[in-house]
Write a structure and sequence with these properties.
By secondary structure, the chain is α+β, with helices and mostly antiparallel strands. Among the domains are: 79 residues, conserved putative lor/sdh protein from methanococcus maripaludis s2 fold; 173 residues, no CATH class. The protein is 27% helix and 32% strand. It is built from 8 helices and 23 strands. The chain has a 6-stranded antiparallel β-sheet, with no helix packed on it. Strands 3-12-16-14-13-17 form a 6-stranded antiparallel β-barrel. A 4-stranded mixed β-sheet has the order 4-6-7-10, covered by helices on one side. The longest helix is centred in the N-terminal third of the chain and has 35 residues. The termini are far apart.
Length: 477
């Protein structure tokens, strides 16, 4: 027989003690919590997957994007006069540059030393002044176009003697008593007086000149007394004539001896300059230094510009072409004209001063040698620019009036062999225009469009392409 309790159990009612009921409730809560955790994890995993398809690193984004698009580079069509030009290097220089040598003789066995250096670089050189003193002997400057190529002494004749006499006369030491073009006693006296005005004794023609003078003077005295004795003894006319001849010869010998003892002009002690004031370019030694081969450099004459041309440049440059001169160190800019284009380097002169440069063309050259370009400036060049490097822009040719110009890179060849430029319109469309190229220069080329109205000033023509600007980059186009 079933009890009341059994009936309740069969219907599913809770059975057991209160402890059993509490355990069942805790188990149910844990199951619900586990289910929530599982659902949350699945939700987070799905969100992470979704975000991973949207968010990318810079490197991944760049890799997936591939090469950037290309931008079109354009330039405006210009309408102006085209000047085809050539740029070469040059230097500001005087018409004549003299290298003063240290050829003055020192005492036997002694080194030539600089004993006086009154001038510095940049100083003016005046006619008649001392340039430098070497081993106690002066080197001075006088006016003249001929170089000092020989020592000048009594008996010398020639244009160089005439030049010396004229230069001394300009300093107030005349020699009019000598025959024209001859170095005689008058010239010697004028030269000696000039040396003494500078504070120096002149070089004697002969080192034993004084002894020769003494000997000749004794001979004159003896001949004079012999003539007196002949006349006093009432000798015949023949004896008297012979005695007079002896005296004349003795007096002539004395005059010659005096010339030998008198002044001469060593070539090493004189520098002739055709224009004054000249300018000291450089001084290579100080007082006490052993005199170098070139003690100082002097320039004279009008300042100009001298450049060098390669054989290929020589073929297109000629006298008369316009030249733009730019002194890059100072910014000075001025115009000039190509005066002469000659082969090889300039020649040189000898004597106390050696010409280091000058009017080009005094020398030959080979086919591979540089040619000399002399440029005459349109205005006077400041002396401070002497020796400065300059840039010479030579106008080779120019267009007849204004023409349409595009950069070289804008012109290309079409498939049919014609020459074209590509115009980029404001709407971004590209339009090809046939052109006839003309004069070239300064990175541009003259173009004539076909038809005439197919191209105009201000149109944008394609000159190339460049990678598109990336974020953070500057736009350098």
């Amino acid at each position: 027989m079933r009890t009341e309790r059994s009936k309740h159990a069969d219907r599913g009612a809770p059975a057991g003690t209160p402890e059993d009921v509490s355990a069942a409730s805790a188990l149910s809560r844990r199951r619900r919590l586990l289910a929530v955790v599982v659902v949350g994890a699945l939700t987070l995993a799905g969100a992470g997957f979704t975000l991973s398809t949207v968010i990318k690193s810079p490197a991944q984004a760049a890799a997936e994007a591939g090469a950037p698009e290309r931008d079109v580079l354009t330039a405006a069509v210009e309408h102006r006069v085209l000047h085809a030009s050539l740029v070469v290097r040059g230097q500001v220089a005087a018409e004549r540059t003299i290298a003063v040598s240290a050829a003055v003789s020192a005492a036997d066995g002694a080194e030539p030393l600089v004993t006086k250096a009154p001038l510095r670089a940049g100083d003016a050189v005046r006619a008649g002044g001392v340039l430098v003193e070497i081993s106690g002997r002066p080197v001075f400057a006088l006016s003249g176009a001929l170089p000092a190529y020989r020592d000048l002494k009594p008996g010398a004749r020639g244009e160089d003697v005439t030049q010396l006499r004229k230069a001394l006369g300009q300093r107030g030491f005349g020699s009019a008593t000598d025959p024209a073009g001859e170095f005689g006693a008058g010239t010697q006296a004028a030269l000696a007086a000039y040396y003494r005005s500078l504070g120096y004794d002149p070089r004697p023609v002969s080192e034993d000149g004084t002894a020769q003078v003494e000997s000749a003077a004794t001979a004159v005295t003896d001949a004079t007394r012999a003539l007196q004795d002949v006349r006093a003894g009432k000798h015949g006319a023949t004896d008297t004539a012979r005695a007079e001849e002896d005296l004349a010869r003795a007096e002539k010998a004395l005059a010659a001896a005096r010339l030998q003892a008198g002044a001469m002009l060593p070539a090493a002690e004189i520098v002739f300059l055709d224009r004054f004031p000249a300018r000291v370019e450089s001084v290579a030694a100080r007082v006490g230094d052993r005199a170098p081969e070139t003690v100082m450099t002097i320039s004279s004459g009008t300042l100009g510009v001298r450049g060098s041309l390669t054989p290929s440049q020589r073929k297109i440059v000629r006298a008369g072409q316009k030249v733009r001169i730019l002194a890059e160190a100072t910014g000075d800019e001025f115009d000039g004209t190509a005066a002469a284009v000659t082969e090889g380097d300039a020649g040189s002169s000898s004597g106390g001063g050696e010409e280091a440069g000058g009017s080009a063309g005094e020398g030959g050259g080979t086919a591979d040698a540089l040619s000399i370009l002399n440029v005459t400036p349109d205005r006077k060049i400041d002396a401070s620019l002497v020796g400065q490097e300059v840039r010479l822009t030579i106008e080779i040719k120019s267009s007849q009036g204004k023409v349409l110009l595009v950069p070289f890179s804008a012109v290309s060849a079409a498939a049919d062999g014609s020459t074209v430029v590509t115009v980029l319109t404001e709407q971004g469309e590209r339009r090809r225009v046939r052109v006839r190229p003309g004069l070239e220069g300064d990175g541009s080329v003259q173009v004539t469009p076909v038809p005439q109205d197919a191209l105009a000033e201000g149109d944008r023509v394609v000159v190339g392409t460049a990678s598109a600007r990336q974020p953070g980059q500057d736009d350098t186009r």
